[in-house]
Amino acid sequence: MIKHRGFPGRLPGTDFQFTIRRANPKGAAAIMRRERHRDRKLADRNADSAFARALWDNFGTEPFQRGNLDAGRLCWLIGREVLAVDEDFDPRSYEALLALDFAAARISFPDAFENI
Q: Which residues have C-beta within 8 Å of that of residue 31, sequence separation ≥ 6?
């Protein structure tokens, strides 16, 4: 499992995790799309926004390996702001290639990308 050095481990001042410390010997947790409803808590929306911005700051629109990025946080963005690069995407692989869809991220999180 690749570790993304310099990527924030969590949202500052919260328990919202962005990365994991070590690989699970039983395999990676599956990434599955979770629906974001309008009544989500502000803290959850802020965590999604900060995570999307951290992806932009670290990878831009270039493909990146899932590596030590938290599956729980990726689940909120997959299929919308974060897209699978490979046709044979394995949601349980630490080596899965993903990419940030900048246009979708900018629409979903305008405050996080307003200066870009």
A: 66, 71, 74, 75, 78, 91, 92, 96
- Assign residue 67 a region: left if phi > 0, alpha if psi is -120 to 50, beta otherwise? left
**If you average pLDDT over residues 28-52, what whole number do you get?**
93
- Where does the chain show beta strands of DSSP type E? 64-65, 82-84, 97-100
Please tell me whether the overall predicted TM-score, pTM, comes out greater than 0.85 for this model: yes
Residues 30 and 46: their CA atoms lie apart, in Å, by 23
Is residue 58 within 8 Å of residue 73, measured between CB atoms?
no
DSSP letter (8 states) at residue 31? P
Residue with tokens 């919202």: 16
